[in-house]
Amino acid sequence: MTIEFRAIEFETAHEAIQWTEADGRGVAVMVDGKNFVVGRAEADRLAGAGVELAYLCDHEMPEGEHRIMTVPVN
């Protein structure tokens, strides 16, 4: 199945997360091993269509270290 979606692709998950934090819009997701920023409605549409994706989050550990976490959908 092929599905088209509007997104900005980034080389790393960190860059995608930074973009959403700086721009204040969109969400960082991973689709098929690639890192994207998409609008919230676009992410919902992809999830509703059954596309396997994961939200990307910057999580601060108790000792202060930052790790990128993924939250799988579908």
Structure description:
The chain has two helices and five strands, in the order E-H-E-E-H-E-E. With 74 residues, it is an alpha+beta fold. The chain has one domain. Strand 2 and strand 3 form a beta hairpin. The chain is globular, with a radius of gyration of 12 Å. It has a five-stranded antiparallel sheet.
Concise structural overview:
By secondary structure, the protein is α+β, with helices and mostly antiparallel strands. Helices cover about 25% and strands about 40% of the residues. It has helices spanning about 15-25, 40-50; strands at about 10, 25-30, 35-40, 55-60, 65-74.
- How many strands? 5
What are the secondary-structure elements, in order, as H or E?
A: EHEEHEE
Query: What percentage of residues falls in helices of 4 or more residues?
Result: 25-40%
| Poorly predicted sequence stretches spanning 5 or more consecutive residues | none
What gross morphology would you assign?
globular
Distance between the termini: 15 Å
Walk across the major sheet and give the strand order.
1-3-2-4-5
Q: How many H/I helices?
A: 2
Largest sheet: 5 strands, antiparallel
